[in-house]
Write a structure and sequence with these properties.
2 domains, mainly alpha, single chain, Tetracycline Repressor, domain 2, Arc Repressor Mutant, subunit A, elongated, 9 helices
Amino acid sequence: MGHAVIETVLRLLGDGASFGELSMEGIAREAGVGKATVYRRWPGKDALLLDVLAAVDTPVPSLPPGNSVREDLIIAIELLRRRGVAKRESGVLRNVLMHVESNPELWRRYKDTVIASRRRALARILDRGIQSGEIRASLGADMDLLLDVVTGPVLARTTMRPDAPLDEELAERVVDMLLTGLAPRS
């Protein structure tokens, strides 16, 4: 039932409806289920919207899969790049994210769940790099700043510079630049 409702919402959004125009009753009718059935699972549209976002979002691996911090960071940044590409190419994803961003409570819940889990996964990679000596230990003193520095280049391109390229080599270039640093090589 849950999958059918989420697929119905995605289809309606893909057909051009905005999330704000949809009603729980209309969604239930389109999905071929009772309104009470939908409300048992989702108390309102905001709760349903979070599940719709989860359905279209790329999951973050709970354990870094690479053999080095460099590989793990490239994988993490590549997931971020792909989300940026998807947001640019998907009217559905843009529509849903616009609704989330315009609703302070929903945005807070999205940040506390989806964004927080992404940051925790990336922090595990960075912590491992600090432990292995691949990243300076002193940088771990301000993990929030370190996380922002790692994710910042791709987020800047996806949000503030929608015309900037998000090419397939971007994650590797960003990670190498960060790991090498900005100072001239001696």
